[in-house]
Amino acid sequence: MAEHTSSSITIEAAPATVMGVIADFARYPDWTGEVKEADVLASDAQGRAEQVRLVMDAGAIKDDQTLAYTWVSPDEVTWTLVKSQMLRSLDGSYRLRAKGDATEVTYQLTVDVKIPMLGMIKRKAEKVIIDRALAGLKKRVESGTAPGTEG
Fold first, then answer.
1. Are 103 and 134 in contact (CB under 8 A)?
2. Dihedral sign, CA of 13, 19, 25, 29?
3. Across the chain, which distance is largest between two alpha carbons, in Å?
4. Considering only CA atoms, which of 135, 147, 105 is closest in space to residue 17?
């Protein structure tokens, strides 16, 4: 089984508000940094994205990838790679857990690139991706500009 990298952060908002930002793919270019374009290609009966095309630009690494999303519960979403130029596989998840008035968000990621890369370098890259995503998510939700937070 492939090794994964995970990290958690506490966000001062309810789980539903946090998941609302996670599910709002059209706004990813506003807060993720690396995502330059996000297009929902297919949605489920509840209107949640099932396949999303992401154009990524993380400096030296640029990619056009399609991910398949599974909405496990109101507090968990997972995704897996459908196609990519740079990646062989990508599996990730956001798991949310209410902590009083806040939400603990755990992001888990496993990436396998098509080019040879040492495991420790790959895990370091995963950690950077996770930490940036969690920081961006926290900033977006707590800024009050997230869906459902307008006053």
1. no
2. positive
3. 49
4. 147
Whole-number CA gyration radius for the chain: 15
Of the candidates 125, 107, 106, the one whose C-alpha atom is nearest the C-alpha of residue 115 is 125
pTM for this predicted structure: 0.84
151 residues of the chain, pLDDT tens digit each = 457 889 999 999 999 999 999 999 999 999 888 899 999 999 999 999 999 999 988 766 689 999 999 999 999 999 999 999 988 889 999 999 999 999 999 999 988 877 666 566 666 777 777 788 888 899 999 987 665 544 3
Cα end-to-end span (Å), the chain = 46
* Cα–Cα distance measured from residue 112 to residue 21, given in angstroms and rounded to the nearest whole number: 26
User: Cα–Cα distance between 90 and 88 in angstroms, integer?
Assistant: 7
Q: Which two tokens stand for residue 68?
A: 């398949």
Residue among 17, 37, 36, 56 at smallest CA distance from 140 = 17
